[in-house]
Design brief:
Layout: H1 2-18, E1 28-34, H2 37-53, E2 59-65, H3 68-81, E3 88-92, H4 110-113, H5 122-126, E4 129-130, E5 133-134, E6 144-149, H6 150-155, H7 166-179, E7 186-187, H8 194-201, H9 219-234, E8 237-238, H10 248-255, E9 261-265, H11 269-275, E10 283-286, E11 298-300, E12 304-308, H12 315-327, H13 329-337, H14 352-355, H15 361-365, H16 370-376, E13 381-383, H17 390-406, H18 412-427
Parallel strand pairs: 1-2, 1-3, 7-8, 11-13
Antiparallel strand pairs: 3-12, 4-5, 6-9, 6-10
């Protein structure tokens, strides 16, 4: 009887182990919010890689993709109330300062990042830090390049590699209009500051001063916006649906072949590959044109810091997994191979087995190699400041100032003077 009872007990235990969910009782489920579908996919891949290496510390990432504004607003409310926040969350760089005000309701990640710091671009950690604490794990460097639609440029006898300055760019635009009068050389953004920031960076300035004052009514800004507005007036540049390339309307506009060049960070490669099939095999990358040769030809733009919230469960495991997912060599390889972003681990930039892999979908899509361009501008990648006043500045520029400049074509000097006054009133 005892043997029979023991046999029954063993069978019951085996059966319980086969019940879905019970066999994986050692799995920790983390909720994660993001506003980028490609990031959700990346986090799932990195969870699988972590689980292969850590059979006793398995994680499951329940990723939710929310609209940009909704996600950030919802997260702000959840952290302030202490109720409803996810365990982990992406926070876009321009919104990050909002979450560092006062006592951040985010977990310091210094101890978890420490094993990886020697290989990571320091500035990409600094933008998500406060008082010596690192709160966000970066995704990429975000080096800005010019994406050229080579086919229509060649129709007009233009070699994109000969475009070095904005004067060259404008002249190429005039030649393009002779052959393709319905096409445009570039986009003047009205709902983003990608191109504008690049034009400021190459002049050695920014939207925010070192002492956190808005830099709007400046000679450098006037030069930048006047250059862009003149090309809009001449029909060389145009505005686009939704105000910038990284929108549904903007991506559709580019994919339809309406524009010969867009100035965007390298992470925009993923938008091409995932959402612009018509451009495959037609696009090449090059350094951004400058006002004068010798100026820096790139700037690190955009970015998302992934955080562990103060209310997260199992914070230690969350911190370790996040550091592995975003900062490890394995994570940085996937940043390139899956997302098509320029990894923060610069040691990988010269790993030709990775960077020039002919099976890589990004290498197959574009006419040239992103890392060849990245290495060309490696020492010219400027960085922008992101401070507590940055969200206010960006909001005004992208809802008022750029529309006045490129849609209404108002006088640039007056627009900048009014913008400086209005922004200062909002901040101070």
């Amino acid at each position: 009887m005892r043997k029979a009872a023991l046999s029954v007990l063993v069978l019951v235990l085996v059966g319980l182990l086969l019940v879905p969910g019970l066999a994986s009782a050692n799995v920790t489920k983390f909720t994660l919010w993001t506003f980028i579908p490609q990031h959700a996919r990346f986090f799932q891949v990195m969870a699988e890689k972590w689980n292969e290496l850590n059979p006793d510390r398995q994680v499951e990432i329940e990723a939710t993709v929310l609209p940009y504004d909704d996600m950030h607003n919802k997260l702000q409310i959840a952290l302030q109330s202490g109720v409803g926040a996810p365990d982990l969350c992406d926070i876009e760089i321009s919104r990050f300062p909002n979450f560092l005000m006062g006592v951040p309701q985010l977990m310091p990640l210094n101890d978890y990042f420490a094993p990886y710091l020697d290989d990571i671009v320091p500035s990409r950690l600094g933008i998500y830090s406060k008082d010596g604490n690192m709160y966000g794990a970066p995704t990429h460097v975000g080096a800005t390049v010019a994406f050229y639609y080579v086919e229509i440029l060649e129709d007009a006898g233009i070699d994109y590699r000969d475009i070095k300055t904005w004067d060259d760019f404008a002249e190429a635009g005039r030649k393009l209009k002779e052959v393709h009068p319905d096409k445009f050389m570039g986009i003047a953004e009205t709902s983003a500051v990608w191109t504008l920031t690049a034009l400021l960076a190459q002049q050695g300035t920014d939207l925010v001063s070192e002492d956190e004052k808005p830099l709007i009514d400046t000679p450098e800004m006037l030069r930048a916006v006047t250059t862009l507005q003149n090309m809009v007036k001449e029909g060389i540049m145009t505005t686009c649906p939704d105000g910038q390339p990284d929108t549904e309307g903007g991506k559709g506009f580019v994919d339809q072949g309406n524009v010969a060049c867009i100035v965007m960070p390298l992470w925009f490669m993923s938008r091409y590959v995932d959402e612009m099939p018509n451009m495959q095999g037609k696009v090449a990358m090059a350094p951004v044109p400058v006002f004068e040769e010798g100026m820096p030809r790139s700037v690190g733009l955009g970015g998302t810091g992934t955080v562990v919230t103060a209310t997260a469960q199992n914070k230690e495991l969350a911190g370790e997994w996040l550091a592995y997912a975003k900062l490890s060599e394995a994570g940085n390889r996937m940043v390139w191979e899956d997302l098509g972003f320029d990894p923060c681990n610069t040691a990988l930039w010269t790993d030709t087995e990775m960077t020039h892999n002919p099976e890589n979908r990004y290498n197959q899509y574009f006419l040239n190699n992103a890392f060849d361009v990245l290495l060309e501008v490696k020492d010219e990648i400027m960085m922008v400041r992101s401070t507590s006043i940055s969200p206010t500045i960006n909001q005004y520029i992208t809802t008022v100032m750029l529309n006045e400049l490129f849609e209404d074509l108002l006088d640039p000097a007056e627009v900048l003077e009014n913008a400086q006054y209005d922004i200062e009133n909002q901040i101070f």
